[in-house]
Amino acid sequence: MTPTEKRQRLRAILNGTETISPATVFDALSARVAEAAGYSCGILSGSVSAAIVLGAPDMALQTLSEFAHQVRSITRASDLSVFVDADQGYGNALNVMRTVEELEHAGLAGLAIEDLVMPSRFGVHGALELISIPEMLGKLKATLAARRDPSLVVIARTAALRVEPLEKVVARVREYATSGVDGIFLSGLKTLEQLDAVRAVVTLPITLGSAPGMNRSDLAARGVRFHLQGHAVLAACAKAMQDTYTHLLAGNGPDGLQPILAAPEVMARVLKVADYEQWEKNYLN
Amino acid sequence: MTPTEKRQRLRAILNGTETISPATVFDALSARVAEAAGYSCGILSGSVSAAIVLGAPDMALQTLSEFAHQVRSITRASDLSVFVDADQGYGNALNVMRTVEELEHAGLAGLAIEDLVMPSRFGVHGALELISIPEMLGKLKATLAARRDPSLVVIARTAALRVEPLEKVVARVREYATSGVDGIFLSGLKTLEQLDAVRAVVTLPITLGSAPGMNRSDLAARGVRFHLQGHAVLAACAKAMQDTYTHLLAGNGPDGLQPILAAPEVMARVLKVADYEQWEKNYLN
Amino acid sequence: MTPTEKRQRLRAILNGTETISPATVFDALSARVAEAAGYSCGILSGSVSAAIVLGAPDMALQTLSEFAHQVRSITRASDLSVFVDADQGYGNALNVMRTVEELEHAGLAGLAIEDLVMPSRFGVHGALELISIPEMLGKLKATLAARRDPSLVVIARTAALRVEPLEKVVARVREYATSGVDGIFLSGLKTLEQLDAVRAVVTLPITLGSAPGMNRSDLAARGVRFHLQGHAVLAACAKAMQDTYTHLLAGNGPDGLQPILAAPEVMARVLKVADYEQWEKNYLN
Amino acid sequence: MTPTEKRQRLRAILNGTETISPATVFDALSARVAEAAGYSCGILSGSVSAAIVLGAPDMALQTLSEFAHQVRSITRASDLSVFVDADQGYGNALNVMRTVEELEHAGLAGLAIEDLVMPSRFGVHGALELISIPEMLGKLKATLAARRDPSLVVIARTAALRVEPLEKVVARVREYATSGVDGIFLSGLKTLEQLDAVRAVVTLPITLGSAPGMNRSDLAARGVRFHLQGHAVLAACAKAMQDTYTHLLAGNGPDGLQPILAAPEVMARVLKVADYEQWEKNYLN
What we know:
By secondary structure, the first copy, chain A, is of the alpha/beta class. Chain A contains 12 helices and 8 strands.
């Protein structure tokens, strides 16, 4: 599947009628397992990538190059349509242009640029700060202008619900929508009323990061097309690592681990052993 | 801990009296979890790195740069003494010199160079082939000469037990030991008798990749200091991924996943959140 | 210009009637200067990349990742159709597939795979050795199969003229042409008669690395479409560096260097300062 | 030479009595030519690296990873003590810590962190803005804390002379000196009086970026130990490229280029051909 086809598939979801959740993926192995499980879309957030690459919390410490390297590992290994949370775009509007260039090149299907001040400013690291509406519009226009493939999906992400009163949030979203972006990402949503207020001013498809107590049909009816579900898979891997290491360090052999391991034939399938053996037959004989 | 200190710790294990097993690690997260579990040594094999980075089987398809990038992710995030299986050294003896340069720079504590022909030659991909003894001696001397830090541990790895009769294996090992390497790595060991035969001609510490049916005290008594236990953690992560993805794709919410997730406080500890918060207090206020 | 458009431009040259020479380029700056000078095609050879990245001679010491990194620097900065000499494809036929994957992703327009044994084998490093015809056919088929964009140009390069009698060379070329490659690259050509002998058996466009004493119309009449002219620009830069460093180290100020420097307005043009200033106006205000 | 030895050599220059100028270097080739010319110190500025890697002007568009990649290319190929202008440290004080980690790992000898707001803020891109003194002190302390090797040289760079009245500049420098840095870098110096005013409050060695109309003995007498001379070598290479490309594109053969090329024996020396041939003899035979 070409990058453009992956982008068109994501676009079709946004322009459809259902609410879809992507799999959190972060390396070639997770991409392959997610694909084998039946997923067609993946997401890599800055926080997950920072944990895998740096072992660091979500504090804007990873470079764009490091992030793009992980994206590429996923897109090379799978046909997933990969969406990323590109944080604030790694700097000002001109840095955003490079972010789009690098991530588009890495093969992703869509990205969100957020209106948060990142990294934290001196003296105010405890609080969330939003950039101004004109600054965010500059970033969104820069994002759209920097695309080479017009099918690349661009989403305006706002953290305003966590900082500002609802009417200001609505005003922001209305402005963001004028930039030509393909969708709006609301983080920190708490109620369906907030969602209704936003939907009253924009018709763009909505992406949500969390939706406490809301069911999928309520979300679908309100234009939510992409619904992130957190990044549990990272903690699941951490537990699997911990269980394995603790078992072995206690002097037990690897045999006792069988119940918590993927079967060898599953591993062979996700590593595409049959494909490589076929290539050996075709080209190395 | 400096790279030299990490190397000296590995050296002390090889020169000690016990048999130690390292944790298989492959990214910053696994390195942190292994360290938290109590490990002081880690191993990254080419096969595990290829699975994580490429989603590919163990067929010498990964570049030295990709492998070094993963090593660096581990050494940056942890104080583990990292040992790697550097396959055949990524080419001829001059490529071996670059391999040592890049991997030493990435911060590892020790590496093994193996006497296998890799990648498979045209027409013979099904069978294991060994390089000649003089060629292997050239590679080992190149490895030793390319070290900048003399504390970097260099191990000669042989697959001869899987290919040649025992007396030829013994002859190989005796020759390899003359190069000045710090230890011998025997892959494919099946019996204690094989081990005894090797020990009769060399006093160097032994590394093993598998030791079916042998117990640790038998190994320790025969000079085995480093005993790899396979790479179960990769299959454990694959199963954790699969369980998570299957659960979520079936429409269940993330809440039901709690039993298979590392607790938030565990995640905070392995991501060193407290350190970063302290640095924010110290330098961003 | 998209990668596909760059590839189609290179393809049009190969299928045209003229003999074209590409500019040797190796980083973003050289790519921009070449483009400004009027070039539409660039070439990066392994030897030039090794000199820039490693300071090493042409001995297959650079990794595929390092080479792809340089290619990407060129393709990101310019619209040149970039052709590369990908040596032996960095290993066996399966490694060739990765080479194609990585270099195609880096945005190149065409690549040549050569029939030389690389890196040098133990004990025979002084002499050129060719791989067998079936092995080369396996590599060429693997190259063609690994392309994602069918417009990517694939050339079979042979060093046979430097090793074998002419009739064997002709036999090789005839076989290589059956694989479906887009052209034949002859290195070490000495006479027009050699060229005529090859042209008697294949109609594919020819690429040449050197053509001592032959003029362009003779070459064009015999199907030569791409003619490399060596990599003088690297030695020109080395001399410019040497002149600059020697001048300054002797205690002379930078002012005396003006005659050997590109003018500030030239530098501003190749660094696209006007574009960036326009983007600042559009998106940062 | 180990990284620590390279750092101690730079430290000895700062603590000496002479004014030294480093060579601007940006890849392995330039590092080798500079070393062959007699330089022991090199400098890589963000602007030069951005030109080589991105073909972009000096607008903070390059990632830390890209910059570190170029540094590593220089330090791997040469024994130069490499000093870098690390701009604002690629973000806030926590990003500065990663900058130190990555650049120290890349093998540099010293770095300067500057008190400029970078990248340009929305709406104010035309003007230089300084961060506050407390913010800069936080960054300097973070830099010093993030060093693993205490011999790594840390310099506080200020652009205050280009923005503030002299008494404010002096106050800044006095504060910066309290952080424990190894030196002060003044950019935009216009007169010896400015230098005298700074020297009246600090005894730390001074680094200068330009010193119009001042001679070396005046500078040495005032504690200037490191004096950058601009980056003419980049424009010299651009002219060499332009001359070569123009010559060849006009249909002239490479032979006519001899006068502007480094001789083959010079190229062989900077590419260390003799070393590699010796290694082939030692390890590949």
